[in-house]
Design goal:
This protein has 13 helices and 17 strands. It is of the alpha/beta class and 464 residues long. The strands form three sheets. Strands 1-2-3-4-5-6-7-8 form an eight-stranded parallel barrel, surrounded by four helices. The chain has a six-stranded antiparallel beta sheet with strand order 9-10-11-17-13-14, with helices on both faces. Helix 6 packs parallel to helix 8 and helix 9 packs parallel to helix 10. The radius of gyration is 22 Å and the shape is globular. It starts with a helix and ends with a helix.
């Protein structure tokens, strides 16, 4: 989870033609194959808390927020309370699945790694609760039941195993560096589950998981199976979303370099994807199944609520630009995890709820085109990303360094701007012939008939 993660971690480019834009996108992605782009809305996910006390009456919030994927726990000990006896899915989950099926919301089934009820540890076998073959049977049983429910789903194998009891029992360095018996054992569990589930249905997607960027590098070294579909990561950071929690030469990530010199989030995604391609022989999909910041006074990694309003849309836009398959914000409600919810436990909505709602209203039907400002400095200065839909183009723009900038908009064309909490306003008038918008740390969405030339001029005006 978030606090454990942060405690453990301590261009400009304007594209003048579509062809040159494609070339630059290839450069931005390093040597990785070019990524297929889908509508922004297809990657919008949310970690829900219905298994931890959030009332099912809150399910309609998913429609209000245009959520396309949810992530929820499935506890092995509840599904298999006795060896070999598979219990039906919990009643609360069945109600959720009915809702997801009706509204075509995908389900990320987070499978726990331990079953000390059916397979308690013994003196001779302390690792019995984590037996790979038993775990694989649990995974395929869940796959069968979810398929019978008729919902879209993926299986996520464990939550942050380096933070879990498996590491304490098996032993080894928390960051995965050898010797780390827990890494080897987790990879054995993944391999067993992948083998059995893919034998049942090769189309079912399966993800390994950990929150630290470097741990998946060690999973790959330990032999993750080539049939694995992707990696689930949790890129928590104490700072801005543009910048990863580690540096290029962070001691505990060696011998791997997991980010570029700029520490950019996009470089962390790109490098992990490329490492996966090298080891698996295919490009793994990257799923961000947790990302967020706790609301607070700025101490111990917390952020003020207004700052969170800025960070949330920036995180999703950065993920879309990096080709992340799905991002699940953490989370829908505080529940047991502190002030990280879009809603408080009294069901009151934070400003971040409205920021989420605005983001999806503005971009859900759009497809990311390219980054048009901030390409050379991905973590500071003006950042701008172009999206397009059948109804027109939208420029999402902000200042990662919090510096206030003014962007002049083209004259003779109808432009409008919407702020992060959904207020649409007419750009301010500097004189009789020009209009402009004020840019700061919180994204605004500028809609209008953008062309390569007008984008170039607008970006130049803001970078003066």
């Amino acid at each position: 989870m978030y606090l454990k993660a942060i405690l453990g971690s301590r261009c400009f480019a304007v594209f003048l033609t579509l062809a040159s834009a494609a070339d630059m996108c290839s450069a931005q992605d390093g040597h990785s194959p070019r990524l297929d782009r889908k509508k922004f809305g297809e990657m919008v996910g949310l970690g829900v808390k219905f298994s931890q006390g959030q009332p099912l009456t809150e399910l309609p919030m998913l429609l209000d927020l245009r959520v396309r994927w949810v992530r929820e726990n499935l506890w092995w000990r509840d599904i298999e309370p006795e060896p070999g006896r598979i219990a039906p899915l919990p009643a609360y989950l069945k109600k959720q699945l009915d809702f997801y099926r009706e509204h075509d919301i995908g389900f990320i089934a987070l499978l726990s790694l331990e079953n000390d009820r059916a397979y308690p540890a013994t003196m001779d076998d302390p690792g019995r609760p984590y037996d790979p073959e038993h775990f694989a049977r649990f995974a395929v049983s869940v796959a069968r039941m979810l398929k019978a429910e008729g919902v879209r789903f993926v299986l996520e194998l464990g939550n942050e195993p380096h933070n879990s009891s498996i590491r304490k029992v098996m032993g080894g360095e928390w960051n995965g560096k050898g010797p780390a018996p827990w890494v080897k054992h987790y990879v054995q569990m993944v391999s067993a589950a992948v083998t059995l589930v893919k034998a049942y249905d090769p189309a079912i997607r399966i993800l390994s998981n950990d929150d630290m960027w470097v741990v998946h590098y060690w999973f790959l070294e330990a032999g993750l199976p080539t049939a694995l579909d992707g990696f689930a990561v949790h890129p928590y950071t104490q700072g801005i979303p543009e910048q990863a929690a580690v540096e290029q030469d962070t001691e505990w990530t060696k011998p791997f370099q997991v980010v570029d010199a700029d520490r950019s989030f996009g470089s962390a995604v790109r490098r992990l994807r490329e490492r996966g391609l090298t080891r698996l022989g295919k490009v793994p999909s990257i799923w961000v199944t947790e990302w967020g910041w706790p609301v607070g006074d700025g101490s111990r990694g917390t952020v003020a609520e207004d700052e969170l309003v800025a960070y949330l849309p920036r995180a999703y836009i950065l993920a879309a630009a990096a080709g992340v398959e799905v991002l699940c914000w953490f989370s829908s409600q505080d529940s047991v995890d502190g002030p990280m919810g879009l809603t408080r436990n009294d069901l009151g909505r934070r400003k971040s709820y409205q920021a989420f709602r605005t983001l999806t209203a503005q971009l859900a039907d759009s497809v990311f085109q390219r980054q048009v400002a901030g390409f050379r400095d991905k973590t500071l200065g003006l950042q701008a990303f172009l999206f397009a839909s059948s109804s027109g183009s939208t420029l999402a723009v902000w200042s990662a360094d919090k510096k206030k900038r003014r962007m002049t908009l083209p004259t003779g064309a109808l432009f409008s701007a919407t702020d992060a909490i959904g207020v649409t306003f007419i750009p301010s008038t500097d004189n009789s012939t020009t209009t402009s918008v004020l840019i700061d740390a919180t994204p605004i969405f500028v809609h209008g008939p953008w062309t390569d030339d007008t984008i170039a001029a607008a970006i130049r005006s803001a970078e003066r």
